[in-house]
Amino acid sequence: MTYAPRERPLSPHTTIWRWHVTMVTSIMHRASGCALYGGGLLLALWALCLAAGPEAYGTFKAILGSFPGKIVMFGLTLSAFFHLAKGVQHLIWDVGRGYKVQTASMGAMVCIAFAIAATVVVWIIAAMTGAL
What we know:
Blueprint: H1 21-52, H2 54-65, H3 67-94, H4 101-128
Helix pairs in contact: 1-2, 1-3, 3-4
């Protein structure tokens, strides 16, 4: 007796699932971690330019001080605060709290709100102190 091969079952993916805030923040958490890795490379480049002398450091400062450079730095600031907030939510989950759908969704919204508010506050302070 021979059997015909059965088709493999399809795994659920983003076209099947209904998007919700915890799903979005989970993806954003991974993306912010990748962005922070890039920020670490940028920090290493800063140190190399600092060690290379005033000309290299001046070039680095000019690039980061430009409009695209400030957008990158704003994004890194937002990534750092979001990753921090989402990490705290994961710590809360690790102790067995906050798993109810409503609580998890509220926590995700708090992570987004905190990241935006903290980023704006830091950039306002930077502007007020002349750091921009």
